[in-house]
Amino acid sequence: MDRTYFGQHSSSQFNEALESIRNHLMEMGGLVEKQVVDALDALLRADSDLAEKVMQAEDKVDKLEIQIDEECARVLALRQPAASDLRLIIAVTKAVSDLERIGDESAKIAAMALQLSEEGESPRGYVEVRHIGNHVRNMLRDTLDAFARFDADKALDVAAEDNEVDLEYRSAMRSLVTFMMEDPRAISRVLNIIWSLRALERIGDHSRNIAEQVIFLVKGKDVRHISMDEMEEKVKG
Amino acid sequence: MDTAEKLDKNASGRNHAEEPLIDLEEQPMQETRYPEHTVGTPFVDAPKMRFRDVNVSYGDTQAIHNISLDIGKNEVISLIGPSGCGKSTFLRCLNRMNDTIDICRVSGELFLEDQDLYDSKMDVVELRARVGMVFQKPNPFPKSIYDNVAYGPRLHGLANKKFELDEIVETSLRKAGLWEEVKDRLHAPGTGLSGGQQQRLCIARTIAVSPEVVLMDEPCSALDPIATAKIEELIDELTESYTIAIVTHSMQQAARVSNRTAYFHLGRLIEVNDTETVFTKPEHELTEAYITGRFG
Amino acid sequence: MSKTTEKVRKTLARRYRAERRFKAFGIVSIVIGLSALLLLFGDIIGKGHSAFFEHYVELSITYDPETLEIEDANDPEQLRYGNFEGVVRAAIQERFPRVEERQDRRALNALLSTSAGYELRDRLEADPSLLGQKETLWLQLDDDADMFLKGSEKQRENARLSPQQREWVLDLEAAGETRSEFNRSLFTSGDSREPEQAGILGAILGSVFTMLVTLALSFPIGIAAAIYLEEFAPKNRFTDFIEVNINNLAAVPSIIFGLLGLAIFLSWFGMPRSVPLVGGIVLTLMTLPTVIISSRAAIKAVPPSIREAAMGLGASKMQVVLHHVLPLAMPGMLTGAIIGMAQALGETAPLLMIGMVAFIVELPTGPLSAATVLPVQIFLWAGSPEQSFVALTSAAIMVLLAFLIAMNTLAVVLRKRLERRW
């Protein structure tokens, strides 16, 4: 079912409240997306200023998270939403905490960028970071897109992409661990890269979580903790 | 005015040419169609009451169109829908309270277990002893609390001796959660109780004849939230022994008390599903629109 | 101050004036109505209060067997034909020994009521040993002398007494040999040609018997009709027709019912004239529409929720009506019936047609003995020539009004007492 409107409630205040929650979520999504992009840039270009900025942006994201949660609580208390409205509120509260975690992970990457800029660049791993980073960035963008447009199919694509990210993450880990065994002197610097990769992988997982919420929101079906095939079946079926 | 009404008006041909009644921009719901059949799960195994293709009309106006529905044993089914959707009319068919209205015509199959409700062999008095009813407005008789509860058993000769009657009165009042409040003043008038107590008295009066099914027609609409909560709790307890069909305007109430929910719209049964499903993921868009509050 | 407030203020004075005018009209109407009522009551009480008392004269009586022509006071035959009037005459002549002319003596005798002789007979009958004895007694004065004594200076001038008679009466009054007593005969005897002996007990009994018949017929019939029409009758043309006609019947002039009674009950069924039974039947016809309409209103006022509750418990139609509707509607029905009765109590016209206008001295003993009723008695007395009947008429009206007020009060009290709240 396409559900592209918040309107048509008998109560216009209800419409406005839902619209406002969605707008704030999109704003938060935009901020977090920029955080991720900036953190990656800071890491890849060893830009400590940019890394500082990313960490400072954290504040704003946290405030938005609290604000959206308050708005959702208010709607729950005052409007007793049901059906799609209820699903929207549930999905938003969950997506918000995922977004906040993504913000945290970005901050972690930024911290690694700072460290790397102090300790010197890692001898290996930037290719993997760039590659997985691009993937994760796309996932986050797509999932936010899917949320904005209530697009379950796109959300399904995001979930599928997460599997690829996981695969790539594992192979990157293997190669970096091998490298560390070969060159123990670089362990501390490579570890920074590994932590960053780990953070990126977490961002991918969180994006997938949000995508699952989008599917719950649109289709009313819970697709958490099931295989990709089952998920596909539920969404298409 | 909602779209469906407008469509109806249009179909009836009035103001057909000059006045387009549907403003497309303002009415994004104009795609709405009634489902051919009720969506969801209207039928259950081994139903207590079974209805197939029920039509009800008042004179020339058809109030209910082709409703097919099962009511399972010991379940609470809530009937929801906008005003005038026929839910009360349907409820009143279940114990033939519509009989009192001369122009009311009922057709279709209506069964209580294997007995046809509208069969000539079916005694309406017996039916109403088996299918009791609680009304919107608390309506205790202007008699004592005791006499209110004892009325039904006396009517049907359920108790021959005084102590038997006393026992029935006490158990009924206990089941209705009213015993502790009124045991010292059983002979005070029932009309002197508070609204919520009166409604529980009415429920006690109804269950005093040990019906199999209890119909409730908006039993809490005249009560305050505390009294409502008590009645809802009571409904929950009653499911152990009775099958309950409840009409309510409060969707939260339907969500709280019922196992299944049936959504009526302009005389049609749109959707029947588990209450949880109806309130989180209704199948039909009309249901969705109603329970999310998108009707004017 | 905003513009709206200004505008509103301008109209305020006008609106308040209109309100005061409206109030004043209402008060004036009430004052007019109340003063008319007070005038009526004042007039009736002013005219009628004197009828509740009458004057007696003290005379020394000798039960002389010769004058009485009675030898044995135990013989009822002799008592019946005894010349008690002679004894009374002798007594008054003894009081005024100087009156000797035959004409004057007759005038003197006329001062005493004819009932004086009957009183003596009753006393002698009760105590035969009085024969030949002497006794001082208070005897009733004739209505003309009574009126003279009751009247003011101006009324005394117009009294129907000769100058001689006036002198005698004044003499008796001055000597303290007259006194005013409560008029017991007003409530203990039937009609009479002599105002001082006329009473309304006969009429009251007639009214009571008539009302009993009316109540016994109209209440059950009216309620049964109302219940059927309200609860059981199908809604179709025929019942609509009946409904309209019941309402029409309530508007039919009452004399028409009298004519109906005359034509059907007297001529066709050959029922006796002047009896409360026929009167009651005729008044039943007249009050039935009132009873039916008020009973239907009372039944309609029973909340449908009560009916639904009983029906929902499996009560049959009949049980719903008997257990719930009837008890709840009863106060209203009773009120309606009592008001209908009050109407019937005050009705004259239909009873004139069936002969309840006869002059009947005997007290009625049941619904089948000839009788008259209070309003007809008033009608009869109002047409009588004797001056004293004016006061009696007003007195009877007061009694009738007292009955009506009592009945209406009863209706109000019943309604208040039996009314249930739900």
Automatic annotation (TrEMBL), chain A:
<keyword id="KW-0963">Cytoplasm</keyword>
<keyword id="KW-0592">Phosphate transport</keyword>
<dbReference type="Pfam" id="PF01895">
    <property type="entry name" value="PhoU"/>
</dbReference>
<keyword id="KW-0175">Coiled coil</keyword>
<dbReference type="InterPro" id="IPR028366">
    <property type="entry name" value="PhoU"/>
</dbReference>
<feature type="domain" description="PhoU">
    <location>
        <begin position="129"/>
        <end position="214"/>
    </location>
</feature>
<feature type="coiled-coil region">
    <location>
        <begin position="47"/>
        <end position="74"/>
    </location>
</feature>
<keyword id="KW-0813">Transport</keyword>
<dbReference type="InterPro" id="IPR038078">
    <property type="entry name" value="PhoU-like_sf"/>
</dbReference>
<dbReference type="GO" id="GO:0030643">
    <property type="term" value="P:intracellular phosphate ion homeostasis"/>
</dbReference>
<protein>
    <recommendedName>
        <fullName>Phosphate-specific transport system accessory protein PhoU</fullName>
    </recommendedName>
</protein>
<dbReference type="InterPro" id="IPR026022">
    <property type="entry name" value="PhoU_dom"/>
</dbReference>
<dbReference type="GO" id="GO:0006817">
    <property type="term" value="P:phosphate ion transport"/>
</dbReference>
<dbReference type="GO" id="GO:0045936">
    <property type="term" value="P:negative regulation of phosphate metabolic process"/>
</dbReference>
<comment type="function">
    <text>Plays a role in the regulation of phosphate uptake.</text>
</comment>
<feature type="domain" description="PhoU">
    <location>
        <begin position="25"/>
        <end position="111"/>
    </location>
</feature>
<dbReference type="GO" id="GO:0005737">
    <property type="term" value="C:cytoplasm"/>
</dbReference>
<comment type="subunit">
    <text>Homodimer.</text>
</comment>
<comment type="similarity">
    <text>Belongs to the PhoU family.</text>
</comment>
UniProtKB/TrEMBL annotation, chain C:
<feature type="transmembrane region" description="Helical">
    <location>
        <begin position="21"/>
        <end position="41"/>
    </location>
</feature>
<feature type="transmembrane region" description="Helical">
    <location>
        <begin position="249"/>
        <end position="271"/>
    </location>
</feature>
<feature type="domain" description="ABC transmembrane type-1">
    <location>
        <begin position="204"/>
        <end position="411"/>
    </location>
</feature>
<comment type="similarity">
    <text>Belongs to the binding-protein-dependent transport system permease family. CysTW subfamily.</text>
</comment>
<keyword id="KW-1003">Cell membrane</keyword>
<feature type="transmembrane region" description="Helical">
    <location>
        <begin position="389"/>
        <end position="414"/>
    </location>
</feature>
<dbReference type="InterPro" id="IPR000515">
    <property type="entry name" value="MetI-like"/>
</dbReference>
<dbReference type="InterPro" id="IPR005672">
    <property type="entry name" value="Phosphate_PstA"/>
</dbReference>
<keyword id="KW-0812">Transmembrane</keyword>
<dbReference type="InterPro" id="IPR024573">
    <property type="entry name" value="DUF3333"/>
</dbReference>
<keyword id="KW-0472">Membrane</keyword>
<dbReference type="InterPro" id="IPR035906">
    <property type="entry name" value="MetI-like_sf"/>
</dbReference>
<protein>
    <recommendedName>
        <fullName>Phosphate transport system permease protein PstA</fullName>
    </recommendedName>
</protein>
<feature type="transmembrane region" description="Helical">
    <location>
        <begin position="320"/>
        <end position="345"/>
    </location>
</feature>
<dbReference type="Pfam" id="PF00528">
    <property type="entry name" value="BPD_transp_1"/>
</dbReference>
<keyword id="KW-1133">Transmembrane helix</keyword>
<keyword id="KW-0813">Transport</keyword>
<feature type="transmembrane region" description="Helical">
    <location>
        <begin position="200"/>
        <end position="229"/>
    </location>
</feature>
<feature type="transmembrane region" description="Helical">
    <location>
        <begin position="277"/>
        <end position="299"/>
    </location>
</feature>
<dbReference type="Pfam" id="PF11812">
    <property type="entry name" value="DUF3333"/>
</dbReference>
